[in-house]
Amino acid sequence: MAAPRLALCVCVLMLAVFTLTEGMRGTGPRRCCFKFNEKEVPRGRVIGYVKTSQRCPNPAILLKTVAGQSLLCVRPSARWVKNLISYLDTKSIPGAGTNL
């Protein structure tokens, strides 16, 4: 009689520990950049941008181009990237949540 109860308690305890550790780990950022495009991208080729999560190891900007096949990783500290972001922000529709 004591053995089934002990086994049940151990199973419940293991399940609780597993649930807590998985919940603490959380989900990570969707996209982070590890390689950067250093070459300037013309304004006319870019239609939007997104900043990467603060949880990424490298701060970055993801540029969406007219081709739209993939997002380009660029450094937010580059002067041409700052100018491009200013241009896109003034071009975006007021009240929109994102410009991508």
Automatic annotation (TrEMBL):
<dbReference type="InterPro" id="IPR036048">
    <property type="entry name" value="Interleukin_8-like_sf"/>
</dbReference>
<dbReference type="Pfam" id="PF00048">
    <property type="entry name" value="IL8"/>
</dbReference>
<keyword id="KW-0202">Cytokine</keyword>
<dbReference type="GO" id="GO:0006955">
    <property type="term" value="P:immune response"/>
</dbReference>
<dbReference type="GO" id="GO:0008009">
    <property type="term" value="F:chemokine activity"/>
</dbReference>
<dbReference type="GO" id="GO:0005615">
    <property type="term" value="C:extracellular space"/>
</dbReference>
<protein>
    <recommendedName>
        <fullName>Chemokine interleukin-8-like domain-containing protein</fullName>
    </recommendedName>
</protein>
<feature type="domain" description="Chemokine interleukin-8-like">
    <location>
        <begin position="29"/>
        <end position="88"/>
    </location>
</feature>
<dbReference type="InterPro" id="IPR001811">
    <property type="entry name" value="Chemokine_IL8-like_dom"/>
</dbReference>
<dbReference type="InterPro" id="IPR039809">
    <property type="entry name" value="Chemokine_b/g/d"/>
</dbReference>
<keyword id="KW-0732">Signal</keyword>
<keyword id="KW-0964">Secreted</keyword>
<feature type="signal peptide">
    <location>
        <begin position="1"/>
        <end position="23"/>
    </location>
</feature>
